[in-house]
Structures are given as C-alpha cells and as structure tokens.
Amino acid sequence: MAQDLQPGSIIIPDWHQCAESKDFFSRILYKKKRKQFGLLESPAMAPQAAVDTVQYKVFLSGKNGVGKTSLAARLAGLRIPSMHYETTGIETIVLYWPVKLRESGRVLFFRLQLWDCGENALRRFDHLLPSCKEQVDAVLFLFSFTDRTSFDDLPNQIARWSGPSDRVVKMVVGTKFDLFMHSDVTQREVRQFQETQGLPVLCTGGEVSDGLGDVANFLNGLAERLWHQDCMAATLDRRPTQCREGALI
Ligand SMILES: Nc1nc2c(ncn2[C@@H]2O[C@H](COP(=O)(O)OP(=O)(O)OP(=O)(O)O)[C@@H](O)[C@H]2O)c(=O)[nH]1
Ligand SMILES: [Mg+2]
C-alpha cells in the first residue's frame, strides 16, 4: 500500500521553509535546536490555534551496526553516537513533526514513536519482535552502504513482515551515505532493488545539523505514506469518517 505515492502529492514538502509554518515549527524547537519530548509531553499551541495530533508507531529494522539508533537520533534531532554501542533491548524516542495537507490546507502534528531494538537482542529474546510488531504503523528496513551483507539481508528482513492483510507502511533506508567512497553497494543496485521490491528507498548519512532541512524530506515522506495508508484503510473499511479519527489525540 502507498508504495507508488508521488512525493508531495498529499503533504506540502517545503512547508517548513514558509513563513506561515514558523509558529508551528517553533513548538518543536528550543534555541534553534529540536526540543525533546517525553512520553507524556506534546507541543503546546495557543488554544485558538489548536492543532490535531495523529500518532504512529514506527519500527526500525536492520542488522546490528547498520545505524538504527543513529537514525532514530537523527530524526529526533539528537547527536549521533560516534561509537557503536549495541542496543541491548527496546528503546523508544518520541518526535513531533508538523505538516500541512495539500488538499484541505489542514495542519496536523505527527507524533512518531520510533522503536529501536538491537538486532542481537531481537535474535536472543523471542518476545521482543512480537512487542515491536504490535499495532505498528510503519517499518523502516535499514541497510548500510558500507556493509554489503546488510543490503543482501534486506529480503529476509522484509519477509519477516509480510502478511496477507498487513497495513504497514514499508520503506527502505540506506545509511552511511556520507561514506560513499567506501560504499559496498552501488546506486544501480539500489535502483534495481527499488524496482523489484516496489519499495521506496531513502538515503541518509553524515553529521546532524541544527536545521530542519536535513530531516524534512524524510519525515514528510514518512508522514505522507502513513496518512495515505490511513485514508486507504478508511476507504476500504467504508468508514465515512475522516482519516485516522481514532488516532486524533
Ligand atoms: N559515517 C556515518 N556513521 C554512521 C551513520 N549512521 C551510523 N553510523 C555509525 O555506525 C555505528 C553503528 O550505529 P548504531 O546506530 O549504533 O547501529 P545499530 O543499528 O543501532 O546497532 P545495534 O544496536 O547493535 O543493532 C556508530 O558508530 C555510528 O556512529 C551515518 O549515517 N554515517
Ligand atoms: Mg542500536
């Protein structure tokens, strides 16, 4: 579902650069850096400008060392760990991202809870994967451009998540794109993979800057697919209500 979505068809992609979005993005920033939100915290808007929030659970899948913890940190605006410390269980990070829907002009806050589980822990403890899968809305399959085996392992990772009635957004993320000089995977192979699997592939890498530009493309793309998936599900269920009514908080 939602795999052939045109970027920008649902969400205005460069909205974070428009003056009118300033008030919304200022709620997720503090001293020009991303604000960190606890599980029970949310961006505070003035009552007259109350904005609906939609929440989603996103799981990061991939071999150990591909950069799951680093991607979660990058998306939340945290520093990327310079060393590899294996994640020994499940770690979650909450982030907020405001978007403007193209058709209705409605503004929404996306609340994304990123679930990051160390691959070794996932193999060792059978109960972890079912928890990660429970009510998940999206899964990001990571591979590293500097680790060929992580790219070759993608079909296995994806197969773990196939099901006849799954309503899960699936995207592939190539990490360590900044180390292209040492790349074990060619762009051509990535394009071929994208065509055969029919999944979108995003590439990330490098230092995290303070700006929003680094992650805007990624988060808008993810939000767009999540929203589209909900709209499709609402249509299939013949629910006459608006998308994600149940998830508005
Ligand atoms: N240059 C570069 N290094 C990265 C990038 N992403 C991650 N790394 C490095 O890769 C190493 C492993 O990253 P992690 O995010 O800890 O890997 P992980 O997938 O969480 O690993 P497990 O928790 O063991 O499953 C760290 O030393 C990071 O600094 C990137 O985009 N560019
Ligand atoms: Mg980790």
Ordered list of secondary-structure elements with their pairings:
Layout: H1 22-25, E1 29-30, E2 33-34, E3 52-61, H2 68-76, E4 90-100, E5 107-117, H3 119-124, H4 128-133, E6 138-144, H5 148-152, H6 154-159, E7 169-175, H7 187-197, E8 201-203, H8 213-236
Parallel strand pairs: 3-5, 3-6, 6-7, 7-8
Antiparallel strand pairs: 1-2, 4-5
The chain binds guanosine-5'-triphosphate and magnesium ion (MG).
Number of strands: 8
Structural class: alpha/beta
CATH topology: Rossmann fold
Distance separating the two termini? 25 Å
The shape is: globular
Mean pLDDT: 89
Look at the structure and give the CATH class.
Alpha Beta
- Counting structural domains, the number is 1
Which ligands does the model contain, each kind named once?
A: guanosine-5'-triphosphate, magnesium ion
Q: What is the CATH homology-level superfamily?
A: P-loop containing nucleotide triphosphate hydrolases
Indicate the radius of gyration in whole angstroms.
18 Å
Q: Uncertain segments of ≥5 residues (pLDDT<50)?
A: none
**What share of residues is helical?**
25-40%
CATH architecture classification name: 3-Layer(aba) Sandwich
Please state how the strands of the largest beta sheet are arranged side by side: 4-5-3-6-7-8
Query: How many helical elements?
Result: 8
- Major sheet details: 6 strands, mixed
Topology pattern, helix = H, strand = E: HEEEHEEHHEHHEHEH
**Strand content of the residues, in percent?**
15-25%
Structure, explained:
- The protein has 249 residues and is an alpha/beta fold.
- The chain has a single domain (2-247), classed as Rossmann fold.
- The protein is 29% helix and 21% strand.
- It has helices spanning 22-25, 68-76, 119-124, 128-133, 148-152, 154-159, 187-197, 213-236, and strands spanning 29-30, 33-34, 52-61, 90-100, 107-117, 138-144, 169-175, 201-203.
- The strands form two sheets. Strands 4-5-3-6-7-8 form a six-stranded mixed sheet, with helices on both faces. A two-stranded antiparallel sheet has the order 1-2.
- The two termini are 25 Å apart.
- The mean pLDDT is 89.
- The protein binds guanosine-5'-triphosphate and magnesium ion.
- One of its GO terms (biological process) is exocytosis.
